[in-house]
Every structure is written in C-alpha cells, then in structure tokens.
Design goal:
The strands form two sheets. The protein has a five-stranded mixed sheet, with no helix packed on it. It has a five-stranded mixed sheet with strand order 3-6-7-5-4. It starts with 8 loop residues before the first strand and ends with a helix. By secondary structure, it is mainly β. Helix content is 13%, strand content 44%.
Amino acid sequence: MQNRPDNNFYLTFNALYYPLAAKVQSVVEVLEKQRITKIPKSPKQIMGVISFRGEIIPVIDPRIILNLPIQPFDNFVIIVHNVHDERYNETLTVGVLAHDVSNVIEIKPLDILPASEFNTIIPKKYTLGVFKDSGKFITILDTDKILAISYNTIHDDNQN
C-alpha cells in the first residue's frame, strides 16, 4: 500500500512562515475560519472544539507541539484530518489550525530527504522528511503522530 501512486500527494500549508505538508489521504476537508469554542483547563495545544458534520472535534494548534513561534492568527483555516491512533487502535477526527493552504503536490518517495537541523526547525520525531521545492524546504509532517498525541492528551485527561 505504501507504493501506490495516490500515496504520493501532499497538501501544503503554512503555519505562520513555515511551509508544511501532510498526506492528502488524511485530509477530510479544509474549513474557512470559524468560531472555536474554548474548553477550560485543556492542554495548551488544544485551541478548543468545533462542530464538524454533527461531531464535536478538537482543534489543535500545531505550532505549540512543533515548538514554532506563536503569533495570533487574524485569518486561518482549519484542516480536518482523520488520523490513526495506534495506542487505542482507532481513527480520530481532529482539526488543525493553519495560516493558509497552498497547494496539493506530488512528492515521489525518492524526493523526500531525511529531516535534519539543516533543513527544518521541526523536531525530527514529528516528520516524515522534507522536500525541496523552488529552493525552499517543505517539512512533511507525521500527522498521525502529532495529532494522536494531542488527542490522547484530551482522552487521558478525561479519564482522570
């Protein structure tokens, strides 16, 4: 399944000035700016929740998890992802804040470089690698890992 041609497509987006990408297969929908309901005492990366197709889903600010500078978003989009959580063996629906969505691009596996301190400031454990496009590096995120960690934070807090 890893080598299917449709597995090579990535949605590119920006978290402030940092170009990022996520596998298209995990993306459900891109939503325009909407009201996010804050949740008291939630972890700092959880911005709140939204109603998506009748389901209440958490909205995560990836900049906090990825140790990127935080500046307020005047305009933003929410990228809704389905991610697989190995810990609970379930599929989770999670919203991710982004400055904007750029494009869908095809990246062949051979064109993905290993992440290092020379080509990304994103912690390596949260990446699948980087892709050089028009002289700039786009960090490919491991959305399953990033979003499941955040979702589990909520789940674990609710269990206590």
